[in-house]
Each structure stands twice: as C-alpha cells, then as structure tokens.
Amino acid sequence: MLYIKNYKRASGMSKKAAAGRTFVRQVISFILIFAVLFQIPVGQDIEAAFVPDVEKVYSDGVYMVNMDTGVVIYSKNENQRYYPASITKIMTAIVVLENCHDLNEKVRISYEATNEFWEGDPNKTGASNAALEAGQTNISYLDCLYALMLASACEGANVLAINLCGSVEAFVELMNKKAADLGCKGTHFSNAHGLWEEDNYTTPYDMYLISRYAYDNVPKFMEICDTTSYEFPANKYNPDGYVKYTTNPLITPSSDYYLEYVHGIKTGSIDYYYDKDGTAHDGGRCLVTTAQKDGYTYLLVTMQAPYFNEEGKSYNYAALDHNNLYKWAYGSFVYQTVVNENEICTEIDVEQGETDRLQLVTRDGFTTIVPKDLADGQESGNSGPVQKKMTLLYENVVAPVSKGEVLGKLDIIYQGDMVRTIDLVAAKSVERSQVAYLTDRAKSLTDTSWFMPLVILLIICIIVLFVLLTIRRRRLIQEARRKERRRKRNGFN
Questions:
Q1: Of 241, 234, 243, whose CA–CA distance to 137 is shortest?
Q2: What do you get for the CA distance between the two ends of the chain, in Å?
Q3: Cα torsion at 47, 52, 57, 61 (round to 10°)?
Q4: Residues in CB range of 396: below 8 A, 6 or more apart
Q5: Can you name the residues that pair with 314 across neighbouring β-strands?
Q6: Torsion-angle region of 68 (φ positive above 0: left; ψ -120 to 50: alpha; else: beta)
Q7: What secondary structure, in 3-state letters, does 384-436 show?
Q8: How far apart are CA 74 and CA 69, in angstroms?
C-alpha cells in the first residue's frame, strides 16, 4: 500500500482545513490514477498529418492506416458519407462467415434472389454477377462467397441473405447490427449487394473499421477475397463448369495496377445512379485493399473516385490511387522505437524503506511509424515528431512498495497530439525498515502543531510532580522529627 507523505502542512492549520486539503489530495490522486488506468487502448488509431508525395489523389474519401502501429498515414473526408457500391459485400461476407455453421452446405437459388435485376430498375439492371441460375442446386455457401468477393456477384449476395436468414430484410438487420457493434457512426445498409439505394451508405472510416475487423477476426475472410480465380460447378448455361476472376486489378498480375504485395479486399463501382425522381447522377469507384511488405502492413480505403476520365471514358482512378499511395508509403516510412519495455525513466525518494531511492520503469514499450527524413533528423539530435512527457503520481512514497506498482505515467506525444500513455511502475519491491519507520514516526511527532505544547505541559507536570514530591518529603521529615521529640519527652532515650 502507498502513502503520500505530507511535508507542507502548516502547524497552525485547523482540523477542518487539514481534512479539506486531504480530501482535495485524494481527489487529485484518484483523477491521476484514473487517467493512467483508462489510457488510450493499443488498438486505437493515431491521427497523423502526412501529405502523400503523389501527383494527385483522385478519390474524394480516403482512410489509410499502418495496421502494425495504428498510425493513420493519410485521411481525407474520412467521416463523409458515400454510396459504397459493392464494398458493401465486405459486411455481407462477415455476416455469412460468422453465422453459417457449414459453408459446404448447399443453398437454394430462388427467383426471389435474381428477379430484381430484371424488373427494369435502372439502378439494378446490368448488375455484376457470377452466372448463378435460379433453380440451381449444386452451389454451396462457400461457392456463393467466392462469387460475392471475386466476381462481385449481386445475385450471390441475395442468395446468401435469403438462405441464411429467410429474407434480404432480415439479413440486412444483421448487417446494421454488426456495423453498430463495430462502432460505425455513419453507416446504414439497405441491401446486401451495394447497388444504389438512397439509404445504403457508409464512410471511409467506418469501412476501415469493418474491413479491419474482418481482417483480424473472421476466419477464411482474407483467403476468399485474396483469391484471383475460382471454378464454379456446371449449370444449365455452363454444362462444363466455368471460372470467374477477381475484379480487383491490384491483385491481378496482368493489370497495370498490380502490386505483388497487395492482398484483397473488394472493389465497388457505380457509373451512374438514378434518384427517386429518375434524375441521373455520376457514380464513382470504391476500393478496399491491404498490403504486406518488409514487415509493414497497411489497410487502405478509398471512396468516390471518378468513374470516367476527362474524355468520358471509363478509367480506374481508385486502382491508380491505391497503386500510388502504397508506393509512396513503402518508400517513405520507417518504424521507430520511442520507448522500450522496462526502460528506466526516473527515480523517486522512498521513506521508511530498506533503500531510499526507487527506479521507475515503463510497463510497456511503444513503437510507431514515422517518415524516414523525420526519423533521420531525430537520430541526429533534432526533436522530431515524437516527444515524451513524464508525470509522477507522487513526489515520494512510503514503504512498503510492490514491484510493478503504478507510480507515474509517460505520455507519448506525436506531432503535438498525445497518442499513448504508458504506466511507470516500481522496478522492484521495497520492504519497510523498522528502524527507519520508528525513527521517522518519532521525527514526525516533532512536526505536529501540538508537539511543543505537549512538551511544555509535560515539563510543567514534571515540575509540579517534583514540587509535590519535595513538599511531601519535607512533611515526612518534619513528621519524623516531631515523633522523635515526643518519644524523648516521654522518657525514651
């Protein structure tokens, strides 16, 4: 147990005032301890303000994170709502993978799952598909997931939703519940495939939360969306079976945008969409990918890249953005260890202990990612983008102290923002010294406001006792002398 030793209490302070100051100190200590205990969690993203060294970022919304450190490398309109198109299917895949108990189970392909694409709605006509046929019975949940994530099959999304939940509406409820559980604030799904509907929207940041969750927590998700081709079983129009290929140019070796270290995740595109009045609006392209190279891992979400170039021709600006941003990131950033685990940071005084000094060390280490030029500057002695600020909970402590006991905190400040708080803990245990304890207790008595009055009172008591004993002694002597004189008068010699 820790005790705060108070050296500054005024000798003339009233009990009420002393109690008030003690209460204030307790409140302050509680606040400090609360701040240390409820520090920024390891998984929380660290905002940064890096400017990509690329000719242009075409996507209107961007969120790019170094997944190893949580540092946001680049963001742009990350909380703006956009129509997600087929990156909606990332959430569709999550719901299926988490709720389907047997992916090899066969599904029923009903007309309910396919009819909406043939009913004349301009926002549904010509939807991407995997050539699944109504009435087909040799397709499994797993086949439909590959259709969903590789070929961006919209009928595959409906088939999965209806077979898993009985209706698309019930499935969409699970999608929205999952989004809320993941902390998405700007997301609402109204279908499972992402074709345009007014209330089907999300943000780059929310889509990062969804994709990061799938990457970290959903088995088989990355295996499926990182596959480039898949063979589907035969149906009426494909009696020998057939192969579908990924729509993602970043993982397609023949593509101009191909990068061998990129993995998954999902494309999305709408050329035009029509509002409820039938007015046409320009759509856009969305893309979510991850990349792993040289020990660095990134996740990149882009939304609302132009669908057409200046000449009115289809052009994949989303893929161009991903290609450029990954090349920039891998050429520009390095890891930097800010503080190591168990690193000695300072010492504090210990009262009544077997030793009078105690080292404080960091409970955890912290590594972040910084631009190469800034890291080189910091190694050369410049301040750099990362600073450390130390705060002690107590100026000194009273033994006993346990190893690992929290005695302070170390704030990591990155580009002016506090991004992590690390506990400073006792490097070893310090037992109480009985000699030091008794000496200190005795010394503390002399610092109290009532000590001198007590000493004076004690001296007065001793003097009074001495006087009384002296008087009593004299009376006894006088009484003895009187007895002796009486004895002599009575004839005793």
A1: 234
A2: 77
A3: 0
A4: 5, 348, 349, 350, 351
A5: 308
A6: alpha
A7: CCEEEEEEECCCEEECCECCCCEEEEEEEEECCEEEEEEEEEECCCECECHHH
A8: 14
Q: Find all residues with CB under 8 Å of 311, minimum gap 6, and list them.
A: none
Strand 344-351 with 406-414, pairing: unpaired
Q: Which amino acid is at 416?
A: G
Helix extents (H) in 191-333? 204-217, 221-225, 317-332
Question: And the tokens for 210?
Answer: 């969804």
pLDDT above 90 coverage of the chain, percent? 69
Whole-angstrom Cα distance, residue 298 to residue 429? Answer: 42
**26 φ/ψ angles, rounded to the nearest 5 degrees:** -65, -40
In the chain, what are the helix, strand and coil shares in percent, each to the nearest 5?
35, 25, 40
Identify residue 102 by its one-letter amino acid code: D
Contact 247, 259 (CB under 8 A): no
CA distances 95 to 164, 172, 183, 234, Å, are 9, 9, 16, 27
Cα–Cα distance, 52 to 63 (Å, whole number): 12
What is the maximum alpha-carbon separation in the chain?
A: 156
Question: CA distances (Å), 242 to each of 83, 120, 147, 235, 238, in order?
Answer: 31, 28, 12, 9, 6
Would you list the DSSP string of 83-120?
--GGGGHHHHHHHHHHH-S-TTSB----HHHHGGGGS-
Residues paired with residue 266 on neighbouring β-strands, in sequence order:
288
Cα separation of 244 and 240, whole Å?
Answer: 14
Handedness of CA 369, 370, 375, 378 (dihedral sign): negative
- Give dist(CA 206, CA 313) in Å, integer: 30
Tokens 């060294």 sit on residue: 53
417-469 pLDDT, tens per residue?
Answer: 787 899 999 999 999 888 766 766 666 666 677 767 877 888 999 998 888 99
The model carries a pTM of 0.75
Q: Indicate the pairing of strand 333-339 with strand 344-351.
A: unpaired
Beta bridge partners of 242: 232
pLDDT digit string, tens, across residues 176-225: 999 999 999 999 999 999 999 999 999 999 999 999 999 999 999 999 99
pLDDT tens string 335-354: 988 899 999 999 999 988 99
